[in-house]
Design goal:
89 residues; alpha+beta; Alpha-Beta Plaits; five-stranded antiparallel β-sheet; 2 helices; 46% strand
Length: 89
């Protein structure tokens, strides 16, 4: 099997959420079998709200990004987690 590159959009609960702290928490909970591919990028949404875009390399196995999505969703301050793109590399 190969690997999959996945871009995951993480929405904070609001504009008051500390994005620097949230980035560190996201990095800390990345499960085994997934690796951060590049720095976490801030994407402006509206009215000062910014989403975090996390690009990961995960194993091409059943479940793929589910473990990552679940880990990210459990972090306090995270409103929503959504896979934007996933493709084999």
């Amino acid at each position: 099997m190969g690997d999959v590159a996945a871009k995951i959009k993480v929405m904070p609960e609001g504009v008051e959420t500390d994005l620097v702290e949230l980035k560190e928490k996201l990095k800390a909970v990345i499960p085994a079998g997934a690796d951060l591919h590049e720095d976490i990028v801030e994407e402006p949404i509206a009215f000062g709200l910014k989403a975090l875009i996390v690009t990961l390399i995960v194993n091409d196995e059943e479940g793929g990004t589910e473990a990552v999505e679940e880990a990210f969703a459990k972090i306090p301050g995270v409103e929503n987690v959504q896979v934007q793109e996933a493709y084999r590399i």
